[in-house]
Records
---
Amino acid sequence: EVQLVESGGGLVQFGGSLRLSCAASGFAFSVYTMKWVRQAPGKELEWVAIINGGDSSTNYADSVKGRFTISRHNAKNTLYLQMNSLKPEDTAVYYCALGNARGRGTQVTVSS
């Protein structure tokens, strides 16, 4: 059974940083493409960042490019999202995702 457990969210001021983690289990983590997605109140789910299995190549939504970094530690079955220069519009519940499967998410709130 696929399990994804996010952590690391919280309240941070404008311009601050947070590092999210996602502990994965129940599948061969290292070979799969993983994503971070987010959902702000009243808005649709938004793709944030993606990292491929194998070569760990990455891609980012324009809204976070240059500020967020996705990475993975395959030996620990863990996915990360380093978020710098946070803005109030980054406020959302952040989820790690394997295909359509997601964890329960972690809340990120950025105050202005």
---
Amino acid sequence: DVQLQASGGGLVQPGGSLRLSCVGSGFTVATSPMKWSRQAPGKGLEVISTISNVGATNYADAVKGRFTISKDNAKNTLYLQMDNLKPEDTAMYYCSYFRFRGQGTQVTVSS
């Protein structure tokens, strides 16, 4: 069975950093297209970053230059490094692989 386990969220002050992790099972992260999405309270799901099966990356304008998506092939894990966090980054963050989505990890940016 395909499973995705996200972690790494928390409460951070504006300007701070967090690294989200998403451990995959039942498939190979290294050769799979994956993405990070987020949903803020009262808003729809927003795709913020994607990484292709060959490692090509894309970012939404809202996070470009601040967030970095990557993979650790040995750990079968997808990451999202988030720097210079802003209050508007507050949301539930999800990793996904095609139609499969993890349970989400909450990120709150507040002073």
---
Amino acid sequence: EVQLVESGGGSVQAGGSPRLSCTAYGFSFSRSSMTWYPQAPGKDSVLIARISSYGESTMYDDSVKGRFTVSRDNAKNTLYLQMNNLKPDDTAVYYCKVMVLRLPYFGQGTQVTVSS
């Protein structure tokens, strides 16, 4: 069974730097590209970061470029999102996502709340 478990969220002040984690189970993590999606109330969910299977390639949405860094540790089946210089607009539930056999799987999400 494919399972993704996010952690690391919480309440932080603007400018803070939390690191989110996403631990994967039930599929070949090291062969899978991974992505992060925030979901904020009333906003569309937009892919903000993607990393290739071995981490050799990354991409970012302009809204987080230069502030967030996606990485992975394939030995630990874990995906990370280092968030720096957080803004109140970054407040959202953050989900990691994987496509397995053309089906999307998301974790349960981790809430990040940024106060000014």
---
Amino acid sequence: QVHLVESGGGLVQAGGSLRLSCVVSGDTTCISGMGWHRQAPGKVRELAAGILTSGGTYYADSVKGRFTISRDHAKNTMSLQMSSLRPEDTGVYLCHADCMGSSEFWGEGTQVTVSS
């Protein structure tokens, strides 16, 4: 089992920055990849950014150049640095972990609201 707890969301004006954090506990050795998904009202949940345990990263086209995902194995955390935020970045951001492709875990999410 893997337990994920997000923090760092909030209200920010367009152009501003936020840093999200996800604290990971439990059987962290099974994790092959992690990511930040976001759920906007009335829209399909999407993967905003992902990171493999090997270090490879993925970014949705809409966040490339603005978001940076990172993972600190020593501190068992994953972070998402978001800058140049836009109103369309508004949504609930959820931390996700994949355990060797056999199971997956989700945090409860943290709300990000970007005002215009």
